[in-house]
Each structure stands twice: as C-alpha cells, then as structure tokens.
Design brief:
Layout lengths: L4 E5 L1 H5 L4 H21 L5 E8 L2 E8 L29
Parallel strand pairs: 1-2
Antiparallel strand pairs: 2-3
Amino acid sequence: MKQDASLHLGTAARATKLAPEVETSVQRVVQEALTNVRRHAPGATVAVRVDAEDDRLLVEVRNSAPRERSDHPADAWSGPLSSVRPLPPICA
C-alpha cells in the first residue's frame, strides 16, 4: 500500500536549537501520528508541518480521508491492554 507524505519544515524551526529530549519527544509524537494514520487511514495522504513561533514549537500532522478500508477500526482496542474492559460508570 502506498502512503503519500509531505514534510514542511519552517525556516524558524530550522534555526531553532532544541534540547535533545525535546527533539526526541517531537520525533516520537510524529512517529506515533504517522503510525496511527497508516493503521487507521490506509492510503491517506499525510502532511507534517514543523515550525517555531516565539518560544513555541509547532508540530502538526494532518491526513486526508483513507483511500482504503482499515482492518483496525478507530475505536477498537488492541495491544497489551486489549483484554482490559472499561469500568462501569459510577452513580452518585
């Protein structure tokens, strides 16, 4: 399956020196977002934008509608906690 992606790295973001832990955090957030798109919106086009404004780093990941049907519905549980069921609501 082909997944189209684009990256826009703003001039201010290129000039910004980030602490190593911030760089790692940003990389992990973008990686998780791309993984979610691939899993829940197969074939979607993805755009990643990173920029800086004042003292803030702006990171945006957007995707189009999926071109294919996902085998993993967005509300499905999966992974190590897949057998854990939500608790019933507490009535006051």
